[in-house]
Amino acid sequence: MRLAILLIILTTTFCLGQSDKAGLTFKTKYYEAVDKWIAFPKKEGDSTYTFGFIYLDDQAGFTFDYASKFIVGEKGLKALPREFQESLKSRLAPNTANVAVLSSKQIGELGLPNQPEWLSNYKIGSETVPYLKNIGFHYNHVGASHLALAPLTQAYQTDPHYDGLEFELAYAYNALKMFDKAISVLKKAIANNPENSFFYRELGYAYRYSNQMDSAENAYMKGIEISKDDFQKSEMAVNMAQAYYLVRNKEKFNKWAKLTRKHAEKGSRYAQFIDIFEQKWHEK
Predict the structure, then answer these.
(1) Is residue 184 a contact partner of residue 166, using CB atoms and an 8 Å limit?
(2) What is the pTM assigned to this prediction?
(3) Distances from the Cα of 201 to the Cαs of 11, 49, 112, in angstroms?
(4) CA 262 vs CA 120, 198, 205, 283: distances in Å
(5) SS in 3 state form for the chain?
(6) Any coiled-coil ranges, and where (predicted)?
(7) Helix axes 129-141, 165-175, angle to 10 degrees
(8) How far apart, in whole angstroms, are the C-alpha atoms of residue 205 and residue 174?
(9) Lowest-pLDDT range of 1-5, 43-47, 91-95, 218-222
(10) Packed helices 197-209 and 230-246: angle between N→C axes, nearest 10 degrees
(11) Least-confidence region, from 7-11, 80-84, 104-108, 249-253
């Protein structure tokens, strides 16, 4: 049975790559330390480090399981008695501090197993398409699309049209500038489900950034036509307006600026972008 998640944001102001006499270097992003024992930087003026285990719950996301605190002793790291018996699991926020991954030697000094026994509970169904899609979603969500590709492509080979999978895979490809692969996935996705406006949004993006402007316009126009979300419509429109602003194509820019203003809320950032583009039109 899964324990409840206590939402605690673990943040700090320590610098990237900080290291100290404990031999710890705090340069690893939390999403790159999945299934690892880690330590957080100590607070200024403190002598103890918080340590525990990071894992990825396919439903809840990136999670830190608190173990205890340690100090640096003459013979290495020394774990302090845990303050309480209850499990303490913390959802990790995007601004979570960089962590130090503990070495096998440090894990031994703290008397820890290689992995906690309870971890297997979170690996149940780890080869299934729903699990793999969710893992990919969580990596995409934190900007780690390079880590999303493996689970998403594995799932895609089994059930390409599983709900949400094609979007996540195309999103990852676009984030990694692998536009040809994104286009290939999205064409098949649209053939299977031509009424999903998110497919056209990602397809328009892929075409735009691979400099296929006519195809980008067609994809975005279709997405705007079928979408019921004005924010999404304004996002597609402003992306195209920006593309023509950059090449100073006034006629095309005006077309997409008009569409942006039609669907964007007054004073929204997308509407403001159009104002800025117009103000700076004659600047180099």
Answers:
(1) no
(2) 0.89
(3) 34, 45, 47
(4) 51, 19, 20, 26
(5) CCCCCECCCCCCCCCCCEECCCCCEECECHHHCCCEEEECCCCCCCCCEEEEEEEEECCCEEEEEEEEEEEEECCEEEECCCCCCCCCEEECCCCCCCEEECCHHHHHHCCCCCCCHHHHHHHCCCCCHHHHHHHHHHHHHCCCHHHHHHHHHHHHHHCCCCCCHHHHHHHHHHHCCCHHHHHHHHHHHHHHCCCCHHHHHHHHHHHHHCCCHHHHHHHHHHHHHHCCCHHHHHHHHHHHHHHHHHCCCHHHHHHHHHHHHHHCCCCCHHHHHHHHHHHCCCCC
(6) none
(7) 40
(8) 8
(9) 1-5
(10) 10
(11) 7-11
Q: And the tokens for 227?
A: 């979408």
pLDDT at position 109 = 95
Tokens representing residue 69 in the block:
């605190």
Tens digits of per-residue pLDDT, 49-59? 999 999 999 99
Is pLDDT above 50 for 36? yes
Spell out the domains of the chain, with CATH numbers in brackets. Answer: 18-123 (no CATH), 129-279 (1.25.40.10)
Distance between CA atoms of residues 264 and 251, nearest Å: 20
User: What confidence tens digit (pLDDT) does each residue in 265-279 have?
Assistant: 999 999 999 999 999
As a whole number of angstroms, the distance between CA 179 and CA 216 comes to 12
